[in-house]
């Protein structure tokens, strides 16, 4: 059996959860001695350079501006079609949604969330993306969903037969063992990870922080990843009269994500919806006390021992955050629980 991963996601992002997902999937399939091939002649995804040369060959074009992506699409598509015609491929695992079909080979697609359908205002292209997604799903022979929550949303919104869907949870590839609370380097920081736009609900966390004297007097907010800090972020801070002096925009080239998770006092995940919520597993794997909203797949991932807040009630978010930070015992319990819970995601 030969499995071929197509090019679709790999020329679109240098770093990202989806390309990282496929890199790790491929790496573990290789450990099982399964014949796989990644096919993207012109790629941006840095993860691909870590694959064996027998399983991937291509050219890193991350220096090319994004406006030339349509050209990269055409080049990669032609190369992929040429490769398919010469290879004895059993399965194509499509890496993202598209209108393209590639012969009669069996096809698998991973669906990560239903954000564009549930929160169409989050993206001006939501309807177009949703239409292409549905076309891709209907074309494929089997679907992988990354959570039961995502599967249920897919069935409800797209009327997909449940027998066509398999759930495989994500896992973290970072871990820090034996974290000791008193030895943490950034005790006066609360961590926020990822995009700060739309459904990620960053503004609610800023509002909670700005209205809590306890948080403002004792902690600062560390921001890791996501978009370059800019005017939209400044506007959020101004809206809630929140000083930029209370924010640490973490340099990801200097500080690793696992270093941040393992050394801050708390990780807060205020998202309005998640198809999975990988940062929860990452944080728990690195000995970081974690609190999050009670929506989408987050309860499925966090389990009964995590601390949740009502996403529609900022006063409840503040209450949950403050209670954890005021109790060393509660933090220790969350660290122990997180280590055990994270082991369920392999």
In short:
By secondary structure, the chain is an alpha/beta fold. It is built from 13 helices and 14 strands.
* Number of helices, counting only DSSP H or I runs of 4 residues or more: 13
Poorly predicted spans: none
Please state the overall shape, judged from the principal axes of the Cα atoms. globular
Supply Rg: 21 Å
Descriptive account of the structure:
There is one protein chain. This protein is an alpha/beta fold and 346 residues long. 39% of the residues lie in helices and 17% in strands. It has 13 helices and 14 strands. Strands 2-1-5-6-7-8 form a 6-stranded parallel β-sheet, sandwiched between helices. Strands 11-10-9-12-13-14 form a 6-stranded parallel β-sheet, with helices on both faces. It has a two-stranded parallel ribbon with strand order 3-4. Strand 1, helix 1 and strand 2 form a beta-alpha-beta unit. Helix 6 packs across helix 12 and helix 10 packs across helix 13. The relative contact order is 0.10. The mean pLDDT is 94.
């Amino acid at each position: 059996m030969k499995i071929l991963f197509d090019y679709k996601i790999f020329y679109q992002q240098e770093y990202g959860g989806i390309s990282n997902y496929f890199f790790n999937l491929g790496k573990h399939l290789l450990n099982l001695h399964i014949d796989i091939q990644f096919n993207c002649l012109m790629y941006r995804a840095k993860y691909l350079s870590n694959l064996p040369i027998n399983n991937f060959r291509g050219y890193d074009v991350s220096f090319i501006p994004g406006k030339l992506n349509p050209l990269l699409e055409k080049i990669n598509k032609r190369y992929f079609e040429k490769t398919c015609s010469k290879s004895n491929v059993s399965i194509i695992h499509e890496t993202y949604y598209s209108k393209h079909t590639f012969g009669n080979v069996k096809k698998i697609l991973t669906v990560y969330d239903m954000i564009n359908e549930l929160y169409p205002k989050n993206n001006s292209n939501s309807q177009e993306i949703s239409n292409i997604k549905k076309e891709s799903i209907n074309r494929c022979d089997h679907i992988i969903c990354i959570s039961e929550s995502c599967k249920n949303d897919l069935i409800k919104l797209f009327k997909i037969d449940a027998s066509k869907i398999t759930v495989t949870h994500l896992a973290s590839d970072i871990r820090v063992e034996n974290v000791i609370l008193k030895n943490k380097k950034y005790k006066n920081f609360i961590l926020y990870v990822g995009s700060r736009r739309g459904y990620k609900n960053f503004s609610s966390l800023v509002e909670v922080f700005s209205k809590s004297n306890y948080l403002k007097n004792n902690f600062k907010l560390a921001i890791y990843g996501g978009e370059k800090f800019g005017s939209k972020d400044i506007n959020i801070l101004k809206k809630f009269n929140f000083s930029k002096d209370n924010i640490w925009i973490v340099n990801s080239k200097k500080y690793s994500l696992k270093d941040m998770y393992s050394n801050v006092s708390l990780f807060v995940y205020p998202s309005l919806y998640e198809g999975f919520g990988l940062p929860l597993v990452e944080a728990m794997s690195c000995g970081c006390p974690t609190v999050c909203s009670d929506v989408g797949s987050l309860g499925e991932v966090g389990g009964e021992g995590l601390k949740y807040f009502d996403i529609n009630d900022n006063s409840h978010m503040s209450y949950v955050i403050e209670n954890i930070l005021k109790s060393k015992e509660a933090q220790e319990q969350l660290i122990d629980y997180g280590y055990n819970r994270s082991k369920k995601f392999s």
